[in-house]
Amino acid sequence: MNCIIIEDQLPAQRVLEKYISDIGSMNLIGCYADAMESLEVINSGKVDVVFLDIHLPKISGMDFLKSLTSSPSVIITTAFQDYAIESYEYNVVDYLLKPFSFQRFVKAVSKANKKQPNLGGASPVVSQETEVLDEIFVKVGYDFVRVRFDEIFYILTDSDYTELYFKDKKVLSSESLKYWQGVLDEKKFMRIHKSYMVNISKIVKVSGNKIYLEENKTIPLGRAYKNDFLKLFKKIT
């Protein structure tokens, strides 16, 4: 099957490229950060499957999907589950919630493969099934580093990048803090500052505008986040 990727985040692009290359039956013919740039190849009829992100520049993935009068099979890849129900109305084969495993990816591709003989007349077959993961591979330089969520102490944003802090190391990620908010379990990780998220299980105490973590780590508690944090923190703990 010929496929294209529409995804503006490089780490996510690379993960999809790696997954696609590991499936011998798939041929990647294009990768686009801007959905509108993919129109020509989609309209050519050469594309069997589109891997489509939701949050894109200029036009969102859902708006782009709505604008198509005809389209190949579409597999949505996103960190947000809000659009799963709406996607039923369109030619969507599956809905992958980031971060997803290779096994889950293969399952989605299998659905697209089964649908190929009926393209043009079949009703969309959509799955809202998502997988709650406890780890993710983060692109670091030329490598992918496995990160376990429960080992993260806190996350610090630095402009367009984020730093994941662990007991004795840190990992630089090109994903935004907003991305991590969408990926991580909100009952385990909380935004406590404009620049910080914290793993609640690592908190030792809260004093004033500081949060003390295990391993003698200390991070600030933003005034704008303090009240909401304390209310939720008391409920969870």
Going by CATH, the homologous superfamily of the largest domain would be Response regulator
Q: How would you name the oligomeric state of the polypeptide chains in this document?
A: single chain
Order of helices and strands: EHEHEHEEHEEEEEHEEEEEH
The average pLDDT value, as a whole number, equals 83
Q: How many domains make up the 3D coordinates?
A: 2
**Strand ordering within the main sheet:** 2-1-3-4-5
Please count the beta strands (DSSP E, at least 2 residues each).
15
Helical segment tally?
6
CATH hierarchy, class of the largest domain: Alpha Beta
**pLDDT below 50 for ≥5 consecutive residues: which ranges?**
117-131
Helix content: 10-25%
The major pleated sheet works out as: 5 strands, parallel
